UniProtKB/TrEMBL annotation:
InterPro entries on file: GlcNAc_PI_deacetylase-related, LmbE-like_dom_sf
Pfam family, one: PIG-L
Protein name (database record): PIG-L family deacetylase
Species this protein is from: Chryseobacterium endalhagicum
Length: 212
């Protein structure tokens, strides 16, 4: 059984990491892993009326705290939403700087390269470039994935799904989004669990698996 000790989650926007891998993040931390969470856009231009423009900075810290991520391990950038592709080189350099400081990262979680959202595909591609010698799993965001290879399943318990749901509840400014609902999160985990022969699961594309 593989054991990951130091994990980096790359989220194009605040909430992407929790949506795609919240259960796995919770399980990793429970098993003793050190998890870092890097969000690239707080989508200030898309925040609904009535909320502070920087509300997602507060919400992502609250959400990742529910999963068990240390506050000092949450790194937030403020690139403009839907324009991350214009900052590809700068993003790549940020990732390389992080890698130099944390050379013992042994797993990176990021969006699928088949994700049709331009911000997601940018982070997927630059993340793979920066961490090409590490194990890389792509998480599932089914509303943006026209195709997704379910190559790896992570078996989860009720407590992991409950933490994922509770984490996503912290995004009060995004409550109108149907993919944040508890019913959807649980249903997808159950469906993936059926495929894997367990009660709950999250599934990932294996971009690279490094065994040393």
């Amino acid at each position: 059984m593989m054991s990951f000790k130091k994990v980096l989650v790359l989220a194009p926007h605040t909430d992407d990491g929790e949506l795609g891998a919240g259960g796995f993040i919770s399980k990793l931390i429970e098993d003793g892993a050190e998890v870092y969470y890097m969000a690239f856009s707080t989508a200030e231009e898309s925040v609904p009326e009535g909320f502070p423009k920087d509300i997602l900075k507060t919400e992502v810290r609250a959400a990742t705290k529910v999963l068990g991520v240390k506050d000092e391990n949450v790194i937030i950038f403020n690139y403009q939403v839907r324009k991350l592709n214009y900052a590809r080189q700068e993003i790549l350099e940020e990732l390389i700087r992080f890698k130099r400081l944390h050379q013992d990262i042994d797993l990176v979680l990021l969006p699928s390269i088949n994700d049709i959202h331009q911000d997601h595909s940018t982070i997927a591609n630059e993340g793979i470039r920066a961490f090409k010698t590490k194990s890389i799993f792509s998480y599932e965001l089914i509303w943006n994935n026209l195709s997704f290879n379910t190559q790896s399943y992570i078996s989860l318990e009720e407590r992991h799904i409950s933490k994922k749901i509770d984490a996503l509840k912290e995004y009060k400014s995004q409550g109108f989004r149907d993919y944040l609902s508890a019913d959807f999160i649980r249903s997808l985990a159950v469906a993936r669990g059926v495929q894997f022969g367990v009660k709950y699961a999250e599934t990932f594309e294996v971009v690279r698996l490094s065994i040393k």
